[in-house]
TrEMBL record:
Residues 387-420 form the NTF2 domain. Keywords: Signal. Residues 60-409 form the Peptidase A1 domain. The keyword DNA damage does not apply. Transmembrane segments: none annotated. It comes from Thamnidium elegans. The keyword Amino-acid biosynthesis does not apply. This is Peptidase A1 domain-containing protein. Belongs to the peptidase A1 family.
Amino acid sequence: MKYILSVAILALTNISPIVNALPGAYSPSYTAGYSEAPAVTSIPSVDFACGYEEENVRIWVIKSGFGNPEQSANLLIDSTFGSIFVAGVMCHSDFCEGQSSPLYNAGKSSTSVNLHKKEIFNLGDERIVKGDLYRDDITAGSIKLHSEMFAKAFSVEGFPSHPNYAGAFGLNPIVDSSDYTDKITYNSAPGYSYSNILERADNVNRSSSTFSKAVDVRERKKDKKDVNKDDNQNSNKRSYNSEMCTFSLGIDYTLVYKIGWLSLPTCEYGKSPFWKTDLECVKINGVVDLKFTNTLAEFDTTVKDIHVPHGDFEKIHQGLKATYNDHIKKYVFKCCDARDLEISFKDHKVTLPVEDWTIKIDRLGDHCAAKIAVSNTTEVPVSRWRLGTDFMENFYTIFDRERAQTGLGLYHGQDPSYLT
């Protein structure tokens, strides 16, 4: 998936492979008032391996650099967090001592500024970060942040002891408001100062972040009759790397022909209001039909699967007549019993074909397991579905600060039934 800085916070897009192969101008139809695609010459972005898995959890990690001369550090993209932190040389937590690369040393950077202030960040689910606040230059791909505020962590608890990342790049805006539906304000607490981007692209909506993936839509369109023939021809000319994603600061309108905007939820926000929306219904034809009230769908980049409350998990697997396989530690069912997964939000409905929410677990392809897990979060509210990276990789995903909305976009050539 990809992250873009613009009116959104996260957009998943494949910049290089797809853009270079685009046949020319499109005349897309956008929802929410977009009538035409603005010209985009270049958008600050960074590519990363969206297929990376740590302890069977697919997470999004970007390569970044701090200071001058640059000190390398991998950062976890975190849609539940509102700031940036990196492990510092004075940190002796298991998380820090388990790093394979050197920790950030402010004394070795000519551009570091010590703000002489300590901060404690509660990232939820017992993840606590304590650090000193600094400013320094941060780079990731073509993304360049000048004198960006972040925490140089001296204590990191609740994270894996030997991670593939040394910190987190948070996407969740810090807000200060008692009524999110009528008034949304951003305070000056540590977070993004997007105006500090050194290299700016023309016509980029800088309040948005986007994720995109090099999606090969050809296999998905084999049995679809309602896909535009031109899109079929265009997709056949392209080459895709399904394991690479892009995080961008802005929206690349040349990649998408439709965007569905999801409004803020009207039920309990929990600790952070973004990036969530109301969940109304989940349906698998002939298997299960779940109706919800006061339930959230949260777009969570820190989990791989769709994480659901225990009761919903049981109802889905009972409907699939699934049995627990002790060897692989998963519930298994006949692949032929599965149907498309329909998830209805307040504003839009998305439909995932069977192959996008299940995985075959035998050579013959007779038995499957669902990419659905029980949510073990202790954060309030517990009644929420956490839509992880496996879900978001099916769309051009946008986190929009200015609109205070998440957007899901369809790529050119992608079946329109995915988003209605």
